[in-house]
Amino acid sequence: MPFKAGLELTELQNMTVPEDDNISNDSNDFTEVENGQINSKFISDRESRRSLTNSHLEKKKCDEYIPGTTSLGMSVFNLSNAIMGSGILGLAFALANTGILLFLLLLVSVTLLSIYSIYLLLVCSKETGCMVYEKLGEQVFGTPGKMIVFGSTSLQNVGAMLSYLFIVKNELPSAIKFLMGEEETFSAWYVDGRILVVIVTFGIILPLCLLKNLGYLGYTSGFSLSCMVFFLIVVIYKKFQIPCYELELNATSSMLSNSSAHEHMCKPKYVIFNSKTVYALPTIAFAFVCHPSVLPIYSELKDRSQKKMQLVSNISFFAMFVMYFMTAIFGYLTFYDNVQSDLLHKYQSKDDILILTVRLAVIVAVILTVPVLFFTVRSSLFELARKTKFDLCRHVVVTFVLLVIINLLVIFIPTMKDIFGVVGVTSANMLIFILPSSLYLKITHQDGAKLTQRIWASLFLALGIMFSLVSIPLVIYDWVQSGGSAEGH
């Protein structure tokens, strides 16, 4: 049956093979015919080439290569600013409920795990060519992946906005009282934190959020980071300014009048377990989440490569580790067991210009940062709904409704530790542990050469799942026990 074999061969030769720069057509593959059957080597090679070509085309379709222009140093600054946030205010509270040694162990662990998760994310980006987290999720897991990434990043950004507005709710009344020359005990409707946060939201934040483009507000990120560095300097300075006995006198407890109680209260503890210890890990995780910003920063890096971006990540996380630990340790050694989930609120601004300056700087910084986060959430929402074309009516309605919901949450959530707890065990866990490892395992599931890396990624995924299974019930249990309103210990 030579005619049939020859016909099949002619048909195959006339087939159009997808063009690819990296694929060459070897004419020998078209001539291997035995007993009227096409050689299996030809078929398998051809299929593998087709698969490779399709994969290459999909990668091109995900994101077109655009050269970056941002230097390594500026990229470190941008990523450090993305990591830094309101989480720094809750770390002293976390340390007070874990002890110095346990807190240091948790902080080192989360730092290293976060760096590893960035590594997995960069590998996934390199394999798929995607520079946007939502696109990466859609490329690997389809629409469900896109939805999960959108939900996690949006919840993280909403949590950050809530914590920022919580700072306004806590700190603005004290600043206004100081400027008015009133005592901390002074009460009036215009120094009520709940009313003030609504006024600030709809008087300042809403007009900024209604703008079509908030690009210029990106410059406030430098101011925000500077405020946090200033805050750290003041925390260190105040440690040597506030004697421990003053804290005890303010405790208004007669049992603290004896010297043994004084010594116990002013003695640092190294390992602690109590009902609030459960908030330590979620708070630390919340403080280190920057994953939604990693790929945009990577895409803008000049002469970008995975190795270069990993260096940016390592430097940024090390810098934030030092800053976080110093803030937590000096805040704790200032107030010991009296520290609160909002460290800044613990400092009294009465007759203290330095503390007032820090308060005002942080308040202004967070007010200007909220619209940037809000713009990201709203844009993702429109992208998900495929309503990317600007519509003024929809723009205004969605902005107003989202801000109303966020304000209601700020008013009725009792403490910042609840924000750190919920966001830490949900979106922070997804963004640090579960999503990067899941994406990596899916992308490399047929790559036998990466068996060892896949084992590590699987263990990383298991750690994230275990973290959720343990932390979520404990946070809920603490709410039930304390009614969600206990601030102290």
Automatic annotation (TrEMBL):
Q: Where, per UniProt, does this protein localize?
A: Membrane
Q: Which organism is it from?
A: Aythya fuligula
Q: Which residues form the Amino acid transporter transmembrane domain?
A: 69-473
Listed A to Z, the keywords are: Membrane, Transmembrane, Transmembrane helix
Q: Does Kinase show up as a keyword for this record?
A: no
Q: Does the keyword Oxidoreductase apply?
A: no
GO MF annotation, one: L-glutamine transmembrane transporter activity
- Matches recorded under PANTHER family: AMINO ACID TRANSPORTER, SODIUM-COUPLED NEUTRAL AMINO ACID SYMPORTER 1
Per the record, membrane topology reads: Multi-pass membrane protein
Query: Where does this chain mainly localize?
Result: membrane
Extract the InterPro entries matched here.
Answer: AA_transpt_TM (IPR013057)
Q: Where are the transmembrane segments?
A: 76-96, 102-124, 145-167, 187-209, 216-237, 278-299, 311-333, 353-375, 396-413, 419-443, 455-477
Q: Which GO terms describe its cellular component?
A: plasma membrane
- What name has this protein been given in UniProt? Sodium-coupled neutral amino acid transporter 1
